[in-house]
Amino acid sequence: MVQRLLAPGEIEALDHTAIPRLLLPQPRSLFSARAARLRRLANNEIKGIPVGATLRGYLLLMAALVDAQAAVTLALPSDAGALAAAIDIPGDAAIAQALNHNMPPLPVSGARPAAWRGVFDSLLAQMSTLADSQPQFSSVVDELRALTGAELEGCADAVLAQFGDGINPLHAPFVAAALQVVWTLQASLLDARRVQPLVTGALCPVCSSHPVASVIRIGGQSQGYRYLQCGICASEWHMVRVKCSNCEENAHVAYQSLEDADTGAAPAPDTINKANDPSRVARAETCDDCHSYRKIFNQEHDYDVEPLADDLASLMLDVLVGEAGYTRASGNPLLWFSAA
């Protein structure tokens, strides 16, 4: 018997309980794994994501920053109740009200948790201890410590809104790193079963931030499904494949890689279901409806893919797709460019 293929609309109508709709982050392992991946990428060890010498130093710098995130995270209480108090997670009533109205329970808009400033100070202290191995940290830490409260909050506003004008590209990744720690820890304390999808699937249902990239997961109920990963809280939410993660149209989606361009034509017989195919580890999903793109990483071809780290390392793919006329749908919190 031949199994009938489902159309995109039919796929979305399936019993959602069979698919994990939301994967919450595990911050006590996430940052250490991300730092390790950044170092492997910097050393050009990942087939399918070639890294040139000019990018290597930056990846190692960001690996040290992510190490600092891991250290700050591990220094916070492991008990859920104590952690919730330490990072100012909203109360049960506020979270319930948001969920009852299909709103994100931990929105990045509005007032920030006061605890973020303490996390930021702890992050600066961690970076100071790394100044010998990463001398670039020294001057940046001094500059960040010299910011007024208003300047620091303004930088945080710009980071969370992904508004690049007027932001110092040297300061932004370090401010973003502190915000990531707070929101990732808060997200880890939620009950994934209670968080509902937003009206638009293009924004994080936990904090309403943009995804940094998407990833095809393997293992368990997530096998073969595509998830978008939030750039701030690291939550991952399901979105069907071959659907633009920006405008959510599916008629003109194509995939570009550094080794070849896949526009939907049937693959060669020797590449069907081929594991460890470097050309499929990192690809750009382009859409001719909104003329944007977002990268998609495939765990089926590299078990250790890490969306934020792999996105940061694959700038060559950004150049390729940008030259083809597509605009990046959203940025990476650890990389900012000067508007000048």
UniProtKB/TrEMBL annotation:
Chain segments annotated as transmembrane: none
The FdhE N-terminal domain, residue ranges: 19-198
Keyword Cytoplasm: yes
A Pfam family annotated for this UniProt entry: FdhE_N
GO-annotated biological processes: protein maturation
Keywords noted in UniProt: Cytoplasm
GO molecular function: ferric iron binding
All copies of domain FdhE central, residue ranges: 203-241
A GO-annotated cellular component: cytosol
Cytoplasm in keyword set: yes
Domain FdhE C-terminal: 242-335
Any coiled-coil regions, as ranges: none
Superkingdom of this protein's organism: Bacteria
Record-given protein name: Formate dehydrogenase accessory protein FdhE
Organism from which the protein derives: Rugamonas brunnea
